[in-house]
Amino acid sequence: MLKFVGTGQAYPEKRAPEIRAEDFAEITQAYLAAKAEEQAGRCSQCGVPYCSTHCPLHNHIPDWLRLTAEGRLREAYELSAATSTMPEICGRICPQDRLCEGNCVIEFSGHGAVTIGSIEKFITDTAWKEGWVEPIVPARDRSAQSVGIIGAGPAGLTAAEYLRGHGYDVHVYDRHDRAGGLLVYGIPGFKLEKEVVTRRFERLRDSGIQFHLNFEVGRDATMAELRQRHDALLVATGVYKARAIKAPGVGSPGVVKALDYLIASNRKSFGDQVPDFESGALNAQGKHVVVVGGGDTAMDCVRTAIRQGAKSVKCLYRRDRANMPGSQREVANAEEEGVEFVWLSAPDAFDAEERVKGVRASRMRLGAPDASGRRAPEPDPGSDFRLDADLVIQALGFDPEDLPQMFGTPELSVTRWGTLRVDHKTMQTSLPGVFAAGDIVRGASLVVWGVRDGRDVSERMHAWLKAKAKAAKPAETVAA
């Protein structure tokens, strides 16, 4: 360890931009074992590991880096998996520059952070290859109690894994035809190849978790019926309602929502029939594309458009580069691949005839800080300009859907933002025995926070279910 002075930071090699822009495969090569051990050996093993404290999962990062440096990869994997249900997924898509690596002590010293995410990915990919990822073995048989989970995204799948490990009969309901939520349909393959998600799902299914796909609560069963069917419910639906731009012409053909666009692209990669893709409505090929937004979803859209063969791709964002919410690494990758960023700009209207033809926009300037502490953008008078556009993608983020109305459960309490209201000690909603976790509680956030919330809520549900079983039976027949 402590080799950071003599050994430089080295991320896995990226494929050349002109090559990687031709497909949806991941853009980086895998570490060789020797290189992973070398990079792990740069860790300073500091007394206060800021990398761990700034990881939502509080992963034991210095410990599994040391094990990796010593060539003890199986032990490194087991330690990594002790706190995370999806280490290889987080290693691929977490914004490490804002979390663990951004708070690495040797980064502060000017030597460059340890490449934590790439090593995490290497450890678990090796574990899958070597057969070290073992089936879930329930601690005891609690299958007399049943748990229903609504939503098969990161929070729901994580909770399902832990609850199955406790021995409960677990059922997962999802409205899509594949489990994974945005891991499958929202995130493009060049960031997260789908086989990586599929093998996680298959492991859960093989452990006895029952998946009910193409299942909509409110259509196929009411919330009340699910409550009758299960001893406890978890709502982990995520947030899918796109924030719309308020400007003339926003409803014109060719002005589309980011998630519709990404789902169509990901479905196409699975070989599905996608009529809106085939018709060109959700296909950037041969088009001038403008993406409005500056978060990770916007980065996914611009880089997808490049791979679909767009004539040009521009990203319109109302703040400057330093104040954008998306990962700076993603911005750099997009620029390498040919995306043009139009900073400090916001749309005023969309020109359209039969379909969109252009975006009229204004330059912005940063004024006084807003409630979030960031300087608020404001129009710069007399700075109007126009961009040609055959396809405009709205990527302004997501809000919660109206779950009380969708689920036919008006008594399900929500906050003023539309997220589910929970008791933060028990993680229960206003309905007894109905818990909630993930983005539907905290708002649109990172996958790693979904995993953390799924881990936390599984423990709250486990405690509640044990108390329920104890109340229903003589004390001596219920395990502690």
Automatic annotation (TrEMBL):
<dbReference type="InterPro" id="IPR028261">
    <property type="entry name" value="DPD_II"/>
</dbReference>
<dbReference type="InterPro" id="IPR006006">
    <property type="entry name" value="GltD-like"/>
</dbReference>
<keyword id="KW-0479">Metal-binding</keyword>
<keyword id="KW-0560">Oxidoreductase</keyword>
<feature type="domain" description="Dihydroprymidine dehydrogenase">
    <location>
        <begin position="20"/>
        <end position="131"/>
    </location>
</feature>
<dbReference type="Pfam" id="PF14691">
    <property type="entry name" value="Fer4_20"/>
</dbReference>
<dbReference type="Pfam" id="PF07992">
    <property type="entry name" value="Pyr_redox_2"/>
</dbReference>
<dbReference type="InterPro" id="IPR009051">
    <property type="entry name" value="Helical_ferredxn"/>
</dbReference>
<dbReference type="InterPro" id="IPR036188">
    <property type="entry name" value="FAD/NAD-bd_sf"/>
</dbReference>
<keyword id="KW-0408">Iron</keyword>
<protein>
    <submittedName>
        <fullName>NAD(P)-dependent oxidoreductase</fullName>
    </submittedName>
</protein>
<keyword id="KW-0004">4Fe-4S</keyword>
<keyword id="KW-0411">Iron-sulfur</keyword>
<dbReference type="InterPro" id="IPR023753">
    <property type="entry name" value="FAD/NAD-binding_dom"/>
</dbReference>
<feature type="domain" description="FAD/NAD(P)-binding">
    <location>
        <begin position="147"/>
        <end position="452"/>
    </location>
</feature>
